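For concreteness, we quote verbatim a single protein encoded this way:
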Amino acid sequence: MAWASWTTTGIYPGAGGVRTEEAGVISGNLTLHTTWTGAAAQVAVQFSGSSDWFTLSGSPVECDSEQDSRDLHQAVVEALRSGGGGGVPAEWAGRAA
Protein backbone atom coordinates (compact mmCIF):
# COMPACT_ATOMS: atom_id res chain seq x y z
CA MET A 1 0.00 0.00 0.00
CA ALA A 2 1.39 3.39 -1.00
CA TRP A 3 1.39 6.29 1.42
CA ALA A 4 3.13 9.63 2.02
CA SER A 5 2.79 12.56 4.40
CA TRP A 6 3.72 16.23 4.58
CA THR A 7 3.83 18.67 7.47
CA THR A 8 4.13 22.45 7.38
CA THR A 9 4.64 24.34 10.66
CA GLY A 10 4.35 27.99 11.58
CA ILE A 11 1.30 28.86 9.48
CA TYR A 12 -0.52 32.00 10.61
CA PRO A 13 -3.93 32.08 8.92
CA GLY A 14 -5.24 35.29 7.45
CA ALA A 15 -8.33 37.06 8.79
CA GLY A 16 -11.16 34.64 9.48
CA GLY A 17 -8.92 31.68 10.36
CA VAL A 18 -9.60 28.16 9.06
CA ARG A 19 -12.59 25.85 9.50
CA THR A 20 -12.27 22.46 11.18
CA GLU A 21 -14.84 19.73 11.69
CA GLU A 22 -14.30 19.36 15.44
CA ALA A 23 -13.48 22.87 16.67
CA GLY A 24 -15.10 25.19 14.14
CA VAL A 25 -12.97 28.15 13.07
CA ILE A 26 -9.49 28.40 14.61
CA SER A 27 -6.55 30.73 14.14
CA GLY A 28 -3.10 31.31 15.59
CA ASN A 29 0.19 29.52 15.02
CA LEU A 30 -0.91 26.33 13.23
CA THR A 31 0.70 23.16 11.90
CA LEU A 32 -0.78 21.45 8.83
CA HIS A 33 -0.40 17.71 8.20
CA THR A 34 -1.52 15.81 5.10
CA THR A 35 -1.46 12.02 4.90
CA TRP A 36 -2.02 10.24 1.57
CA THR A 37 -2.98 6.58 1.68
CA GLY A 38 -3.00 5.68 -2.00
CA ALA A 39 -6.49 6.89 -2.89
CA ALA A 40 -7.31 9.77 -0.55
CA ALA A 41 -5.59 12.43 1.53
CA GLN A 42 -6.52 13.31 5.10
CA VAL A 43 -5.81 16.93 6.01
CA ALA A 44 -5.55 18.05 9.64
CA VAL A 45 -4.38 21.11 11.58
CA GLN A 46 -3.26 21.68 15.13
CA PHE A 47 -2.15 24.57 17.26
CA SER A 48 1.63 24.33 16.91
CA GLY A 49 3.06 22.44 19.86
CA SER A 50 -0.29 20.90 20.82
CA SER A 51 -1.10 17.20 20.71
CA ASP A 52 -4.69 17.61 19.44
CA TRP A 53 -5.37 17.44 15.69
CA PHE A 54 -8.50 18.80 13.99
CA THR A 55 -9.82 17.61 10.63
CA LEU A 56 -9.83 20.44 8.11
CA SER A 57 -13.30 21.06 6.69
CA GLY A 58 -13.54 19.26 3.34
CA SER A 59 -11.15 16.45 4.26
CA PRO A 60 -10.63 13.70 3.18
CA VAL A 61 -9.97 14.47 -0.48
CA GLU A 62 -9.69 11.93 -3.30
CA CYS A 63 -6.11 11.93 -4.64
CA ASP A 64 -5.05 9.43 -7.28
CA SER A 65 -1.31 9.97 -6.90
CA GLU A 66 1.33 11.04 -4.44
CA GLN A 67 1.93 14.16 -6.55
CA ASP A 68 -1.78 15.07 -6.37
CA SER A 69 -1.63 14.84 -2.58
CA ARG A 70 1.51 17.00 -2.47
CA ASP A 71 -0.23 19.57 -4.69
CA LEU A 72 -3.25 19.45 -2.36
CA HIS A 73 -1.02 20.05 0.67
CA GLN A 74 0.55 23.12 -0.95
CA ALA A 75 -2.87 24.46 -2.02
CA VAL A 76 -4.10 24.09 1.57
CA VAL A 77 -1.02 25.90 2.95
CA GLU A 78 -1.78 28.83 0.64
CA ALA A 79 -5.50 28.76 1.53
CA LEU A 80 -4.74 28.78 5.26
CA ARG A 81 -2.45 31.77 4.85
CA SER A 82 -5.24 33.57 3.00
CA GLY A 83 -7.71 32.99 5.85
CA GLY A 84 -11.40 33.53 5.24
CA GLY A 85 -12.65 30.78 7.56
CA GLY A 86 -12.48 28.10 4.87
CA GLY A 87 -11.17 24.59 4.70
CA VAL A 88 -9.98 22.59 1.71
CA PRO A 89 -9.79 24.97 -1.30
CA ALA A 90 -12.82 24.93 -3.63
CA GLU A 91 -10.90 23.44 -6.56
CA TRP A 92 -10.17 20.37 -4.40
CA ALA A 93 -13.40 20.23 -2.40
CA GLY A 94 -15.31 18.61 -5.25
CA ARG A 95 -13.03 15.61 -4.93
CA ALA A 96 -14.18 14.69 -1.43
CA ALA A 97 -13.49 11.02 -0.72
In short: The chain is about 20% helix and 35% strand.
